[in-house]
Amino acid sequence: MLSLSRCTARSISLRALRAHHTQRPPLNSVTEHDLAHFAKFLDPPAILSTLPPVSLPADELDQFNNDWMGKYHGSSTTVLKPKTTQQVSEIVKWCNERCIGIVPQGGNTGLVGGSVPVKDEVILSLANMNKVRSFDPVSGILVADAGCILQSLTDYVAPHNHIMPIDLGAKGSCQIGGNVATNAGGLRLLRYGSLHGTVLGLEVVLPDGTILDQLTTLRKDNTGYDLKQLFIGAEGTLGVITGVSILTPPAPQASNNVILALPSFKNVLPLYEIVKRQLSEILSAFEFIDRTAYDLAVKHGQGRALSDQEVEGAECFVLVETSGGRREHDEEKLADLLESLLEAEKPLINTGVLAQSPAQFASLWALREGVTEAVSKEGKPYKYDISVPLSTFQEVVDGTREHLRSKGLLGDHAVKHVIGYGHVGDGNLHLNIVAESYTPEIQDALEPYVYEVVASHRGSVSAEHGIGAMKTHALHYSKSDVSIAWMKKIKDLFDPHGIMNPGKVLE
Amino acid sequence: MLSLSRCTARSISLRALRAHHTQRPPLNSVTEHDLAHFAKFLDPPAILSTLPPVSLPADELDQFNNDWMGKYHGSSTTVLKPKTTQQVSEIVKWCNERCIGIVPQGGNTGLVGGSVPVKDEVILSLANMNKVRSFDPVSGILVADAGCILQSLTDYVAPHNHIMPIDLGAKGSCQIGGNVATNAGGLRLLRYGSLHGTVLGLEVVLPDGTILDQLTTLRKDNTGYDLKQLFIGAEGTLGVITGVSILTPPAPQASNNVILALPSFKNVLPLYEIVKRQLSEILSAFEFIDRTAYDLAVKHGQGRALSDQEVEGAECFVLVETSGGRREHDEEKLADLLESLLEAEKPLINTGVLAQSPAQFASLWALREGVTEAVSKEGKPYKYDISVPLSTFQEVVDGTREHLRSKGLLGDHAVKHVIGYGHVGDGNLHLNIVAESYTPEIQDALEPYVYEVVASHRGSVSAEHGIGAMKTHALHYSKSDVSIAWMKKIKDLFDPHGIMNPGKVLE
């Protein structure tokens, strides 16, 4: 009986927990009184504010209040740039007691509005925490402040023949803390796996100001719950990542690539199987581009990798990249692959072109990466970053096109192209709808349609960009009610006052 | 003010949460009444019990109540063997309402007593949930019931040229659900990384009976908190894993190995750097064996890989394994490595022997794996499975030896050998102390000494074996008070009644 009565007591306190989440009161704004407190432990240059006594003009905070796409706009009055974990802890502790919202901000290079305020939260910039704490060239384990820029870390480990396990277009400005907080995917995921595997430890300032030090430099540590995993991909809603321990792989000695023209999408998957088997450990990218995307890229200035004749009858293209330890071995494997593909009884490919020089290597990648630019030049793009089973890539693209046609929205007056490209190896499809202009009709035809298609395949509405402020309403298409309910319980447990990056991830 | 008052309310409910944890009342025992309820949805063969009406003799439950080492003993009256996730859910729901403890049990092959009851908890065996749910040979993504035996999954994917990302000595009886619950490491971690990276999704029955379905088959899904990570390594204390989605890598086409004799431990790390650089992606194991361990293995019947002359002056040995996509390429890389090592101006190695046949390949591994057996034959071993920085391996082994010497415990009367071997690549050192017999003096000299040494290097007191019932008291040597406090909060949130694998991981 004792235990049963206790169970009841606990159930009540848990119901209380849930109840609180929904009826969260508004957060407080920063005041001069708060600035005076921050000034006690922060140098003057670390406090940017439109409030007295600092009284900066509002536009000095624009770069922090707005995202780089100009799509999301906050109205924060104050940006704080601490230099130490202790300073971060004191800021967070104070904001928690005062119920002031905080937006942790790294390079502010996100695509879903996760790193700018929704209202006037304090912006906590990690930019001044940019030191490498340690690097062990033997194990390849790097420990760095969260504010270190990805490219600078890549440069730091390069002389030791190591590379970072992630690579992104934004590498020049994104920060490692932000990469981890958003569980960034990028170009090396196929080869080196996700950050859930390569991040070995984290230092996190929790919403009550407590410093959670799990900054281990161990490859293996099997002692209790792996709490750090919760902060990877939480987009700063559970705490502020201040330090990262990450495993950096040895640098490959050679890279090469080849572009293949396929008569039919049906051949992509059998091709992927063969390529995986023949190239196994040196396969580092397997990128899919459909015909429409290829033609657009060429139309808008990308050097054509293949001749008219070679392109003729091709329904789609695949870019294969290898990265290995010895050039001659890798080239032999790749040449043999190409030969066996071309000489097969029922060839899966029409033709293939192997890069013969660093310049050609770069131009093949430019073709793949040029698709994004071409799409923007061609019209107004609706972009979806989704994960669906490899076998459904074409089906999803064609289905969307037919859906728009059935709505009378296909054609120069509305939607000009529906294209698909992306990372076959990761099951990550970039579905782009190129329209003459943005219209409510097209928007309504696409959503929730696309999300429902993704859900029907048990896919992900955000393969690598995260949820941020943009997709909180779409979370339920990829996560069950039970999952979302438990996310909210975790959020309540760590951040009962709801101060950490409010309005992001969870509605 | 509103918000401040609310904050206070929340703080109280959180304090309540914490308070509860420590004053948890005793759990209830299973009764005939409970058996009658289970019989409503479980077939008779799925209920093994010493209670009426089943009334089996107690020894029929021995294999479930005791671990394979005979070190841990439970006194459970009842073992349930559900066939479906729904049945697991109904069992857990009932036990939660009745406050009856549950021990999820897979192959019961653990080393820390995590899978047997501490008292008379119900044993929930996953053995009858042993179906493969799906396998995609293109992506290599396998979805299986938690009760599938690791070896049977390895056999299942083999015809598709895939392998499981983990391999263990216990592969013939351990189950994938148990592997995930204990975050098993094993022999392939250096190459394929930890389960936190290779497990893509889980199906878990939570302590209130709710089914948390995160059984995604997506390589990339960036939609909210990655809850499944909490259950990887939680050893069944947060819920029962019933299904696993895991990424299986392409099978390597060729494997080879070489044993190297080193004049000094100081050479191990520079050697590891060179080997990593020259073999890069085909390096699949880098195992360290000190001289004492080598001599013991030879003394107790392992074929000697090297001649007396070759062994002379060797302080330690390294076993290097490669696994790659093409035999001739791999052999060339390995041969070139050996040549460059031997012809170096200041050679890091005295000599090296390259396996010339599958038989030699096996015998080199037998030498490494034979150390464990040799140690047992030589005396009574005290075994420590720890993670420490690579650079401190020898220091930890020698320091322990000196410590024992200073206590007058080194010599045939007490401790005969202190040896070190293990996975350099993973930073995982197996520290073995071989004694004439187990004595309180030696035990007291070793603990907490060894744990304190580990803590001084910010190491792990359990690199891969987990905490179970054995090391709950030592958890604080590897995890900060803050980390442990938050583990307890997570435990309270998921399992307020404390029914899931009580007495494991957290005291």
UniProtKB/TrEMBL annotation, chains A, B:
Gene3D superfamilies, sorted: 3.30.465.10, 3.30.70.2190, 3.30.70.2740, Uridine Diphospho-n-acetylenolpyruvylglucosamine Reductase, domain 2, Vanillyl-alcohol Oxidase, Chain A, domain 4
Stored InterPro entries: FAD-bd_oxidored_4_C (IPR004113), FAD-bd_PCMH (IPR016166), FAD-bd_PCMH-like_sf (IPR036318), FAD-bd_PCMH_sub1 (IPR016167), FAD-bd_PCMH_sub2 (IPR016169), FAD-linked_Oxase-like_C (IPR016164), FAD-oxidored/transferase_4 (IPR051264), Oxid_FAD_bind_N (IPR006094)
Protein name stated in the entry: D-lactate dehydrogenase [cytochrome] 2, mitochondrial
Species of provenance: Hypsizygus marmoreus (White beech mushroom)
GO molecular function, one term: D-lactate dehydrogenase (cytochrome) activity
Swiss-Prot/TrEMBL cofactor(s): FAD
Domain named FAD-binding PCMH-type: residues: 72-251
Keyword field contains Mitochondrion: no
GO annotations of cellular component type: mitochondrion
Reaction catalysis annotation: (R)-lactate + 2 Fe(III)-[cytochrome c] = 2 Fe(II)-[cytochrome c] + pyruvate + 2 H(+)
Coiled-coil annotated residue ranges, if any: none
Family note: Belongs to the FAD-binding oxidoreductase/transferase type 4 family.
PROSITE patterns named in the record: FAD_PCMH
